[in-house]
Amino acid sequence: MNIFRKYRYMPFGYKLMLSYCLFIVIPVLLIGYFANSVYLKSISEQIESSVNGTLVQMSDNVSYKVEDVKRVSSFFYFDNTFATQLRNFEEGWVGYEATINFFVPKIVAYKDASNSNMWLSLYFHNKLIPEVYRDYKGDPLRLLDKPYDIYRITRIKDKDWYKNYPEEKYGSTMQWVQIEDDKKFNRISLIRRLVNPQVNSQIVEFGFLRQSVYLSDLFDTIDHTKIGNSASIYVVDENKQIMLSSGDSKTSVNGVWNAENFADHMVIEKNIPSLNWTIAAVIPNTIYEEKIKEVRLLTFVICLIFAFVFLISGALMSNYFSRKVNKIVSVLNSFQEGNFHKRINFKGNDEFSQISLALNEMGQNIGELIHKVYVADLEKKEAELDMLQAQINPHFLYNTLSSINRLAKFGELNKLQQMVMDLAKFYRLSLNEGRILMPVSDELDQANAYVNIQKIKYEERMGISYHIDPAILGFTTIKLIIQPFIENVLEHAWCADRIHIRIVGTLETDHILFKIIDDGVGISASILQQMEDPEESTNVGYGIRNVNQRIKLYYGATYGVSIFSRLGIGTTVSIRIPLEKPRDFKSDRY
Question: What CA–CA distances, in Å, run from 339 to 57, 344, 362, 509, 511?
């Protein structure tokens, strides 16, 4: 805002920088925003793909273990020899020998063919087959390695899981269920009917098979940490019952799976074909949001770096061109203020160089033209001043000679000598060997010589005091700028029979200020307006206007004379000239 108050407009550099930001930085930020959106979508897809891949691997591992258990059941199911022996089983020694030498070795061989730790239970319809079982008093799988038992079918005839077993479809009917004490010991059982399809071309059940395994063994690859520490994995059966969970399972409801309970999570489900169960992965948004935050932070940092680089490069470029434009504007402002000496030089052969050459040439041409006009006008004004001095000086000289005659008549030789010396000094300094400029000290000496002559005439009725800063004596001024105002005071400002004049000279920041202060009658506002009006044709204040115009013509419009006066109080004349050091005065002759 301070910049706009200073210039009252938006500088070229700011416009260039603003346009640069609009067409470069903003598109970069937009690209960053869209890139971030695309990347976030990619992360979501990547997480989903990764979790899908993990679930597929878990499903394959579970299917392998399920198939391993199924494979053992298939050994019994499709072994016709085993079925034939059971059907032809005899009581007594023959049956005992068949049990010891055929059934038990075959059962042990089939169960040992599995890599899984399972409890094998066989139920037969043949009442002649002896039962072989143990009183485990606990979980068989914890007491023995791959235990097995042989029972008669009568033990399960009244069990609901046996009575409700589905109708047999040869080779495919089987069930994974939790029966008996499976839930208690966190097991699950594969139950399968053993049939002989060759009896009267009908499928006839001769036994029943139960294989119990730990859920933890069957689903040992279900591990939520493979997805993330905050993730959860649920194994859901076909009835939407949660059979196993890994990770935070607080959001499950009564062991029943419902995806709506995880509305604020990412839920990915994968079927286990061999079980017709489902593995459901629940990923909290925190994992997704952490990656989103990382991506957003990375995108923000990259966009910030690029924006910073572009802003710095834009600022440098804007500064480079704005400095050139500002130099051109500075030269134009100098031309507008009347200073045609300022020049600019740009390297290269671009448009700025051509503008600088044109401006320099224009400044030189206008400067020369103005100088010619100025010299002609100055000569005219100096001629007018000389004419005015020619009119005043004889009158002043006549009065002074009359005073000298009076002093000689009364024999006041000292005053006579002093007046003659001051008169000679006054005219010597006034002539100034035809130069326009003179040292400030000489200007003050000339005014003092005039004052000394007048003091001899007016004596104690006239008071004079000087307040001159010694620092201004080393500068120069055009001649005859103080004496005309002292003379004007002595001719027009008397109040009764006395008057006091103060001559002040001070060094300001960039100029010299003279003040001629009197305590005379003052000047009325109407006369003061006539004196300050450069177009006024009357003789009122002609000498004052002459000095003011000479100063402005020589130094410029910012310098000159200003008058403040109040009737009955006095008048203050301020003369403002620039700081100029002495130079070769011969160059000021015209």
Answer: 87, 13, 12, 20, 17
